[in-house]
Amino acid sequence: MAIKAEIRTIAEKNRITANIINEITRSTSFLLLGHKDPDADCLASLVAVALLLSKFQKYVTIYLPCPVIEQLSYLLAICRYNDINLVQDTSTPLGTDFSAVIILDTPKPGMILKDKQIDELLQDPGIRKIELDHHLEADSWYSGDPGYCLVSQASSTCELIGYLSLKMAIRLGGAGRVEKGDFFTRNIALAILTGIVGDSQMGRYLKTNRERWYYGVFSEIFHHLLSQKTIKGSRNMSSMEDIFRVIQSLSEQETCCFNDMKKHLKTLPSIESISIGESESEKLFKHYGNEVLVNVAKFAADKLAEDCGKLGLVGYYDDPHISDLVQFRLRRSCRFTSLDLREILREFGIRNGGGHTGAIGFRISKGEIRNIEDFTSNFCSKIEKLTANL
Question: What is d(CA 197, CA 117) in angstroms, rounded to the nearest whole number?
Fold first, then answer.
């Protein structure tokens, strides 16, 4: 395996894009995979690619045997409306011979949401493995075949899907059909915008001019498509702002979970943190369930970062039925752009982690942490020193 890096030239990016489009043209059946505990960008990537493939009468299966938070349930509804096969139970046979597997928004092979039957497919050299992802460097490794990995710096994986879809529209749909709206449906635009808005927080966490420029280009294209194709007066989401409000909202149950988590809040000048001990984590899992706790932990890290003005950190013990790891999520405020959070992974020698400039996640074995509060306190003190002059 090789560590992920930016595509070196425009010519190379064009070759990779052409390879992927050629494979889409040749292949008849596709299996789409994302990462464990999928977030908005991951789920939206799965749905957006499925919709694009279905336009060319391809057989598409999304493997998603995990609960999806209520706010993102509209993405699953889109799949059902468009007769896209959703495998939501690990006991369900996949039921077909796949020509290609597409791995989306997943930093490394170990994070792919999969089972034994999928492992066999991934090890089959006769099945093409395509990858689209925006996680670079740190602890990120290629899962796709050489020449078929559209892995590049972007606000989100959905931004890369937007790029690919425009190339597909020109090559497979005809340049004129893009303006007529024959190629892009409302649901494709909605899915792509969900990922772009969700991962970038409406562009708040972009660091470089390049990121901001590409975000502006692709968000504007698909925002325009969505607003054009939404029926006026309907209750459907018709703008990026509508999408952002939906995916940022908390259900009543999630609000209760967040209030329980806030009881463990600690504050330093540069970082606010929540660390939840093993017994308390187990209680939260039993009461709220994995999908609620994971989503609220992400929300909490975002909110702590904005409240502090710099950084927000949340740590908790995984459900013992899921893993023997302690999970951490670190977020950067949109007002604090001086630090690429991936540098923290390198600075602290953390191997099991990854993310992008504004958000990282990392995992540490339970056996390596005697007391999560002491660990978090020590970690935050080091962060204070690291950010003292930023």
Answer: 33
End-to-end CA gap in the chain:
35
Percent of the chain at pLDDT above 90? 59
Distance of CA 35 to the CA centre of its chain: 8
Q: Which of 193, 35, 17, 24 is nearest to 104 (CA)?
A: 35
Q: What is the pTM of this model?
A: 0.83
**Tokens 């999520």, located at residue:** 329
Alpha-carbon gap, residue 264 to 266, rounded angstroms: 7
Q: Nearest-CA neighbor of 263 among 322, 316, 331, 325?
A: 316
Q: How far apart are CA 66 and CA 36, in angstroms?
A: 8
CB atoms inside a 10 Å sphere around CB 370: 8
> Going from the N-terminus, what domains does the chain have, and what CATH number goes with each?
10-247 (3.90.1640.10), 251-386 (3.10.310.30)
Tell me the pLDDT tens digit for each residue of 305-337.
999 999 999 999 999 888 899 999 999 998 898
Q: Average the pLDDT over 226-250 and give the result.
A: 77
Order of strands, sheet of 29-33, starting from the edge strand that comes earlier in the sequence: 85-87, 59-63, 29-33, 100-104, 128-133, 149-151
Place of tokens 């962060």: 383
Q: Which residue has the higher pLDDT, 271 or 291?
A: 271
Residue 229 has pLDDT above 80, yes or no: no
**pLDDT for residue 151:** 97
